[in-house]
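--- STAGE predict ---
source: upstream dedup step, 1 unique chain passed
mode: sequence only
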Amino acid sequence: MGAGDRVEYLWREDERDKPKSIPAHDYIDKTLDMIKENMDDETVFPSKKNVPFPKNFNKIVKDIFKKILRIYIHILYNHFEVVRKLGFEAHVNSSLKHFVVFGLVHKVIPKKELDPLEAWMKTNFTNISAQYQYENLKKK
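--- STAGE serialize ---
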């Protein structure tokens, strides 16, 4: 799956596997399956009181956010004309803004993953606080 000609996102089944190129629809399906599996797993997302989250919880959440962000970026680079023609541009932009701001505030989006969004963020972020956080991420 890619973001135009700039970026290719590879898929890895687990940490031991070599990352491989797969079509976008497979990347998206696998991402959604992975998210559902994690959300349904009581050892990852406990639903009962006083049950601790696993030690690798932050890593799991960051991986989920990274993959969702990659899907957004793929849509922006490869399918945005369709989004625009369907009249969904404002909805997609608003959803992505909220997603990015949440990810920045809670530090669950790896900063290198935002590079393909740089021009989009400069155009779409009128919120000084979000833009400030993004600029500070770039400095670190």
